[in-house]
Amino acid sequence: MTASESEQKETLDIGRETVDLSETPLRVENLRKTFGGITAVDGATFSVEQGSFTGLIGPNGAGKSTTFNLITGVHRPDSGAVYFDDEDITGQRPYQIANRGLVRTFQIARELAEMTVLENMMLAPKAQEGEKLWRSVTPGLRGTVEQQEEEVLARAWEMLDFFEIDHLAGEYAGNLSGGQRKLLEMARALMTDPQMVLLDEPLAGVNPSLEKKLLKHVHELRERGYTFLLVEHDMDVIMNNCEHVIVMHQGKVLAEGEPADIRSNEQVIDAYLGDEV
Ligand SMILES: Nc1ncnc2c1ncn2[C@@H]1O[C@H](COP(=O)(O)OP(=O)(O)OP(=O)(O)O)[C@@H](O)[C@H]1O
């Protein structure tokens, strides 16, 4: 990390702390997951570098979503391990993993569509201290809870402003366009000030101008030290934006490398890219 990058990150208004870009925050080793007779993930091993924008691609059914679910604690692997910041997080619950700084975007469910954009943001606050309840019922300590709520509100506005949807704060989430929803999903994920964000097809149904905007925001965040792992079917998006690409096929990692190498990899062309190159 250069001195100016370091400076930029420390002064970032969305509140990231300085991180060491030489780290490898995420490592999955020999992950395996079966559903009945189906092997969804079959010994996948890869790692993601700190501060990178890494793409995870592969044909339908290759195991990408299941891998995301194994990393974020939605599913427990049959075998293998997930390490985040060199700590074994295998089998931890999604909220525990999120509290460590590893989050994924979630689609705005129907119930959330009936709340305003700002209310959606307030539902995803930064983890608060465990004694919150105790503080709220203890005379003299009420101010701390109020202070925390103010901090959550301030962060919500900062994120809405960053993603340029602050003018929609009072709008019901259900009234947003597909692209605006995707921006809200990203903004919500960032509420907890994570270190790493997993994006599962964040551009599906997004029009070209909002797609450009969303990718611009991801690049800005990445330059400031956030790490992104992206599942996306649009090959141009992957090849033009990610500096590292991991290709899954039949539950395994078939290849990984820079976009240009992946494009010309014979095995990848046979298994996946076919006519796309
Ligand atoms: N909860 C589940 N129950 C049963 N089978 C599942 C479950 N989740 C995934 N699978 C199966 O595991 C395999 C891998 O699915 P997965 O969704 O991880 O692939 P993918 O690469 O994300 O595919 P796509 O690009 O189509 O989203 C598929 O055969 C799928 O049908």
Automatic annotation (TrEMBL):
Key words of the record: Amino-acid transport, ATP-binding, Nucleotide-binding, Transport
Gene3D superfamilies: P-loop containing nucleotide triphosphate hydrolases
Pfam families to which the protein is assigned, alphabetical: ABC_tran, BCA_ABC_TP_C
Any one Gene Ontology molecular-function term assigned to this protein's record: ATP binding
CDD domains, per database record: ABC_Mj1267_LivG_branched
ABC transporter domain location: 26-275
GO process annotations (BP): amino acid transport
Matching InterPro entries: AAA+_ATPase, ABC_AA/LPS_Transport, ABC_transporter-like_ATP-bd, ABC_transporter-like_CS, BCA_ABC_TP_C, P-loop_NTPase
Cellular component, GO, one term: plasma membrane
Similarity comment: Belongs to the ABC transporter superfamily.
Purpose: Probable component of a branched-chain amino-acid transport system.
Listed name of the protein: Probable branched-chain amino acid transport ATP-binding protein LivG
